Amino acid sequence: TSVRWGGTANSIGMGAIVAKRAGDGNARCAEGLANPSGCRTRRVGIQPLPMSAPQRLDLPIDADFPVELANELARREVFNKHHYRPNSYLHKWWARRCGTTFRLILKGLVEDEALRDFLAPAGLQGKIILDPMLGGGTTLHEAIRLGANVVGADIDPIPVLQARATLTQVPLAQLEAAYQQLTDGLWRSLGAYFAVETLAGYMVPLRFMLYGVRRACACGPAIQLDSLDLRPHDEVRVDPERLGVWQGDRWQGAFIDLPAGVRLIDKRSRHCASCGEKFQVPPNLPYREQLVPLVTVAVCPEAGVEYRPVSPDDQMRLAAAQLAVSRTWQDAAFVIPPGPKSRDLHYRGIDNYRDLFSPRQQLYLWESRRLLAEFPPEIRLNLGLLISTSLEFNSLLCGYKGGNAQRPGAIRHVFAHHAYGFPYTVVENNPLFEPAGRKASGTLGQLFHDRIRRARQWAAAPAERVPAGRGSQQVPLPGEKDGGMAVLTAAELAQGQRRFLLHHGSAVDLPLPANSIDYVITDPPYFDSVQYGDLANFFRVWLQQLLPEAADWQYELDAAAIDPREPVAGAAYDYLAVLGGIFSECQRVLRPDSGRLIFTFHHGKATAWAALAGALRQARFQLVNYYVVHSESPASVHINGLNALTHDAILVLAPAVNREWQRPGWPAHADSEQFTATCARMLGWSLSNAADETDLPAAWQALLSSG
Questions:
Q1: Average pLDDT score, the chain
Q2: Positive or negative CA dihedral for 136, 418, 79, 72?
Q3: Residue 99 pLDDT more than 90?
């Protein structure tokens, strides 16, 4: 199977070069020049600007990129990125770009045309590629698969630890044995807390417990749920009159210990029908005390999946867990710092991360920390990250979606909307539940299968999913491996292949000699977009307990391009200053004759583009070319209905090039692709023509406020 990198069939370069390419003297014809009127264009003309000692512009990506192929692959991958690249999804991270897009970017740097095919293994042997803002690790994984040696840096320890775990080739058999040892130990310590008795008298593991939330009005107390239907197709429902649970035509029992006169309502009931007051959280009630345990869910050997009201024995187990956990963690280590996303927690009186976890979930973390100490470092790293990422499915911020017949799975994970959410039906998952012959959302066993077992099997023999009729087919890539050998010094990158060097710290000062990097490929933070550093605290406070020796857990806030604390008036300046320092360091380490800085970017605000342009000007980069590609599904829950951009600009930059860009006309704000293309052209003009950095904000504001 062949999927061509270049050629008219699969490539539409949004910035194909009109000027003569250095080295071959052949002119490329464009289909259109920059259009001041704002109409759609598919290619943009670039005129040569006299300059001494210009860069060679003979890399394939300087002139062309298979946009149509990239779009077709991305539209498929964007819905299930973890299926396309399972080995880079060990731990939760945000805003990952499509791996197929970055593979195509890297193929555009391959000198041997025979190895430039999308499905051709290798092509980057002997090259050293840097990602100074590592994030989800896409660049490192894609580059190492093609034979390159790689360097990754990040100010946050989580991306660095994830890259180290997933790129280090630990035998799967060792990970399997260690996982079994870990879970055996957890069951011995915690099994009694997660036990439940079915109505038929069987003692079985709890699958999960459902909680409602306390509300009140002038008429008295209420308990609110997302829906009174718990499983529509099984006809499992809460009866608001009898205050209990029906499963089909079987009465499963009544709830116990409810306040006198309590009403059971769903989230649509915002105001009391009697007094007209809005249902409110009772005053001064801590978050965990707002939650009322109502329903246990387990698998009965006779009845199958069984929903029944919480029993006195269940309450005794909850009380025992509360007593046990009181002897464990100290609150001081889990204080929630201020932040733009954390303010949602503070607003609800949640000031400590422990308040987001049930006593049983906290015991799970306490015992995991004890057991992890028994394993060698690389095994401990993998299992520690697995336990940490399981918290997204094992927190009191997890919602229940089993009541919606259109939504698969039982648990809505914490960051389904890239922010903290507060469900009305809260799920306390059992992380140790392992059902026979069925999947269990968010359990440690399911996560181990998906993120370690299946991921490492794929990493040992990667395959690409390519279009085939109405579906896709997996194509093996013999000779590729998604993994390599860790090194400690830059000198070790000069030999061998698939070596990786990781740096936890700011990329403004990298442990690399000048002119030692062939290409920088990255995905910088998007100015004022989702505050990943703030959200990552949710995991970081526990990772510091689980893996205390694995990283320097002091987070250097002042060196982050996006400050995870409260935003301040000078955010644009800080973004410019930090990115400018990183880009300047990239310029220092790039090879002077052929080095490229390539990254993806999109944003709707003039301040973001002006800050980016200022940072690049500070580092003396100019735009060689750009391509606009599909990056995000409009159905994604965190952008749905927000008129958000669904395209990225791939920006190809070099320190010194003969390129002059025309200033574009106004963008079509309603057209994501054309808007992104206009911004990319404006960036080229900003880097080669704007007289002073102080002119940039006004120039960008004038462009994006028009149209």
A1: 87
A2: negative
A3: yes
